């Protein structure tokens, strides 16, 4: 079972970026936690981050046929990117959308997600634990 975990713009600065909203864990901490849980769940994961919308689109395209699921935190592209939605619409594995913060509790412009139109599940407001919940959900769906 191969799972791609994608992180969008500014998540490279997790831990120092608005820690009151996003917490103290770095993206490396999140990756390490995902690697540990993946081992337990017998999943193989590929954990990536990009500040570039096109690069995220390319990675989603390349995941077709090679992976069983994608966990994606599209960050700000959640609210703007038809291109990421279109790429996910060509992907036939399980897609779980993750947001560290509860986007529905925040500014109005964060309430709409293009990606949710494709996601099989959405996790928001559970902090970085959301990534682990997403992996558990994918493992559950794959059986
Ligand atoms: C985020 C929420 C987005 O609105 C924001 O632009 C982010 C992170 C989250 O994980 O809570 O960069 O996706």
Description:
This protein has 143 residues and is α/β, with parallel strands linked by helices. It has a single domain (2-142), classed as 3-Layer(aba) Sandwich (Rossmann fold), CATH 3.40.50. The chain is 36% helix and 19% strand. It is built from five helices and five strands. The protein has helices spanning 19-22, 27-41, 53-63, 82-89, 129-142; strands at 2-7, 44-49, 69-73, 94-99, 121-124. It has a five-stranded parallel sheet, with helices on both faces. Strand 3 (69-73), helix 4 (82-89) and strand 4 form a beta-alpha-beta unit. The structure holds 1,3,4-trihydroxy-5-OXO-cyclohexanecarboxylic acid. The record marks 17 as: Transition state stabilizer. Its EC number is 4.2.1.10. It catalyses: 3-dehydroquinate = 3-dehydroshikimate + H2O.
What value does the Rg take, in angstroms? 14 Å
Counting H and I runs of at least 4 residues, what is the number of helices? 5
CATH class: Alpha Beta
Q: Give the CA-based shape.
A: globular
Lateral strand order in the biggest sheet? 2-1-3-4-5
Number of E-type strands: 5
Which small molecules are bound?
A: 1,3,4-trihydroxy-5-OXO-cyclohexanecarboxylic acid
Percent of residues in beta strands: 15-25%
Give the averaged pLDDT, no decimals: 98
The parts where pLDDT drops under 50 for at least 5 residues are: none
The biggest sheet amounts to: 5 strands, parallel
Helix-strand makeup class? alpha/beta
CATH homology group: Dehydroquinase, class II
Known CATH architecture: 3-Layer(aba) Sandwich
Distance between the termini: 11 Å
CATH topology: Rossmann fold
| Element pattern in H and E | EHHEHEHEEH
Can you tell me the number of structural domains? 1
């Amino acid at each position: 079972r191969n799972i791609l975990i994608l992180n969008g713009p500014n998540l490279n600065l997790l831990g120092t970026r608005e820690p009151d909203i996003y917490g103290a864990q770095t993206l490396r901490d999140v990756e390490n936690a995902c690697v540990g849980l993946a081992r337990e769940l017998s999943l193989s994961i590929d954990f990536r981050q990009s500040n570039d919308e096109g690069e995220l689109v390319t990675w989603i395209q390349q995941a077709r046929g090679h992976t069983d699921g994608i966990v994606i935190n599209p960050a700000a592209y959640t609210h703007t990117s038809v291109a990421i939605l279109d790429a996910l619409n060509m992907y036939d594995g399980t897609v779980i959308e993750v947001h560290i913060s509860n986007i529905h509790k925040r500014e109005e412009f964060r309430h709409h997600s293009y990606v949710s139109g494709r996601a099989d599940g959405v996790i928001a407001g559970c902090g970085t634990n959301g990534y682990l919940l997403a992996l558990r959900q994918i493992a559950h769906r794959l059986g």
